[in-house]
Amino acid sequence: MAYPRTDVAARPPVHRRPTGLPAADPKPTDDRRLVAGVVAVAVLLAGSRWGSHIHVGPLYIGDFLLCAAFLAATWAALLSGKRPERVHGPGILIGLLLLVTGFRLLTVQHDLRVALRDAAPFAYVAIAYLSAGAYQRAGERGRQRTVRLLHRGLLLHLAWMVVATLAPGFVATLPSVGSTRVFEIRTDFDVAVLGVLAGLSILRMRRGRIWLHASVTAAALVTGLAQVNRAGLFSCCACVLVAIMLRVAGDGRLRLRAVLLGAIAVLATVAVLPISPAGQRLLALNETATASSELVEHAQGTTRARLIAWERVLTYTLDDPVRSAVGVGFGPDFLQQSNGDLPIGRGMGVRSPHNYLLTTFARLGFVGLTVVVALLASLVTIAVRTVRRGPPDELTSLCVLLVVSLLIVALLGVILESPFGAAPFFWAAGILLAGERSRRARVRRGPEQHPLVSSPQEAIA
Questions:
Q1: DSSP string, 368-383
Q2: For residues 275-281, average pLDDT
């Protein structure tokens, strides 16, 4: 007599993950746990430059929250008593940049405090290790809660930006925080963050809530256009374009709607650009522009000043073989030594030539520049592949927007040399790098070794 196989009957059904959503290799220990470091990132995105100057004891609030995140992650790993889960790190380039930074710190011959301040932006890349492991350990609910927290931070940022734009006199009465003032606008970074919110809102436009997210998108873009900054405007446009491309690639049924939305956005930008402060500043680069003569002179003067500063820093670094190879290190004010600060404004406390790659070359030479260029190229490649594959989980999409937006303004401003820009950028970079390495590992193992995919095509997607 044949008896039924109870082990097969009791086996739970296998739930398959939709195509395009990456699955972490390790099993999440807590489905609701936030991705480590997100609180610091949300606070820095919400408060921008003035928020980063808030002190918690001897530390700035961003450094305090990041230290707490590292300690909490270490403490949780020690208390778990379990064998460490296999997770994919952000890759060798992050480690190489930290090694180069550490090596140059060992050769410091000047004021150690100044050297540490110069090295801090490069040390922030360690945040990528924190976010990379936490992202893979987090469950779906934890990732969703992470996005919700970041979204609230972006909305808070939009709220005070609107207040500061409409009521600058009120902002002038607010108390000072360090060398800045509460609600004081840092145009390049703040407009870039508005672009991230606009892109995320475009991705969230769904039936039934389209007007809500469309209103947020419009408010973010209008507020950004009201600022006078060209790099921020480029970032806004890039975020809108990336968000629309993600929607187009994700669902064929939405392709026509996304194309129409993109056409409307382009037409609206073309119509509003000439009358907006940011648009007039951009058009002022052309000598035949219709902008006011004062605006034309100021915009073109700023461009000439930066080009002169870049040329002087580049010449100064290349004049000495040692500086060309390993840079001046941390501590020396290479901008003043090269007289690159004269066109920008000597005595204003600026120690970077408004270009992250040039700062890296001057501080770390060809050695550090090679590592940084390779790292940024990897991030851009991952972003392009993510867009081509279609929309991933919402957290990955948000990280793509953060990396694209902040990278653009970093090439034309002092962004990644500052904690409010470096921390969100490398936190998002860690998630993208680790997610790509995890996806490649799953493809190498094949679908037969991963229970959440049912075909090679789904594994590649």
A1: HHHHHHHHHHHHHHHH
A2: 53
State the Cα–Cα distance between residues 66 and 334, nearest whole angstrom.
29
The residues that bridge with 55 in the sheet, in sequence order, are 60
What do you get for the CA distance between the two ends of the chain, in Å? 47
Which residues pair with residue 180 across a beta bridge?
A: 177
Provide the phi-psi class of 345: left if phi over 0, else alpha when psi is between -120 and 50, else beta.
Answer: left
| DSSP string of 166-205, one letter each residue | H-HHHHHTSPEETTEETT---HHHHHHHHHHHHHHHHHT-
Instruction: For residue 291, give both structure tokens.
Output: 């902008």
Q: Return d(Cα 321, Cα 236) in angstroms, integer.
A: 40
C-alpha span between 436 and 292 (Å, rounded): 48
Q: Take residue 153 and report the two structure tokens written for it.
A: 């931070």
Q: Is 59 helix (H, G, I), strand (E, B) or coil?
A: strand
The separation between CA 167 and the C-alpha centre of its own chain, rounded to angstroms, equals 29
Burial class (CB in 10 A: 0-12, 13-18, 19+), 267: exposed
Q: Which residues contact 210 (CB under 8 A, 6 or more apart)?
A: none
pLDDT in tens, 173-199: 999 998 899 999 999 999 999 999 999
| Burial class of residue 139 in the structure, from the number of CB atoms within 10 Å of its CB (0-12 exposed, 13-18 middle, 19+ buried) | middle
Number of DSSP helices (H) and strands (E) in the chain, helices first: 21, 4
451 with 13: CB under 8 angstroms?
Answer: no
- Tokens 């039924």 found at: 4
pTM of the full predicted structure? 0.83
Span 45-69, average pLDDT: 91
pLDDT digits over 115-124, tens only? 999 999 899 9
**C-alpha separations of 14 from 17, 23, 137, 452, 454 in Å:** 10, 14, 20, 8, 10
User: Which segments of 293-452 does DSSP mark as H helices, in order?
Assistant: 293-318, 321-326, 334-337, 341-344, 356-389, 394-410, 419-445
Residues with Cβ within 8 Å of residue 150, at least 6 apart in sequence: 38, 41, 42, 45, 398
* Nearest-angstrom CA–CA distance, 388 and 400: 12
Q: How many CB atoms lie within 10 A of CB 385?
A: 12
How far lies 454's CA from each of 13, 25, 311, in Å?
14, 16, 55
DSSP for 423-447, please give it: HHHHHHHHHHHHHHHHHHHHHHH-G
Compute the distance between CA of residue 62 and CA of residue 37 in angstroms, rounded to an integer: 10
